[in-house]
């Protein structure tokens, strides 16, 4: 049980912290989406 809690906590901290930062700062979210879009278009 303790291990599962630690794993869940680490996943939430690692994956959850990034979306929260983007959500708090719309400008960073836009830049992130623009960068992702440019990469996708370049691949195509």
Quick description:
By secondary structure, the protein is an all-alpha fold. It has two helices and no strands.
Largest sheet: none
Order of helices and strands: HH
**Classification by helices and strands:** mainly alpha
Characterize the overall form: rod-shaped
User: Distance between the terminal alpha carbons, to the nearest Å?
Assistant: 45 Å
Helix percent reads over 70%
**Individual helix count:** 2
Number of strands: 0
Number of structurally distinct domains: 1
Protein topology:
Blueprint lengths: L1 H23 L1 H18 L1
Helix pairs in contact: 1-2
Describe this structure in words.
- With 44 residues, this protein is mainly α.
- The chain has helices at 2-24, 26-43.
- The longest helix has 23 residues, at 2-24.
- The radius of gyration is 15 Å and the shape is rod-shaped.
- The relative contact order is 0.08.
- The mean pLDDT is 69.
- Residues 1-27 are annotated as: Disordered.
Supply database-style keywords:
93% helix; 44 residues
């Amino acid at each position: 049980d303790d291990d599962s809690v630690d794993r869940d906590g680490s996943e939430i901290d690692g994956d959850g912290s990034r979306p929260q930062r983007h959500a708090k700062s719309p400008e960073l979210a836009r830049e992130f989406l623009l960068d992702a879009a440019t990469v996708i278009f370049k691949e195509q």
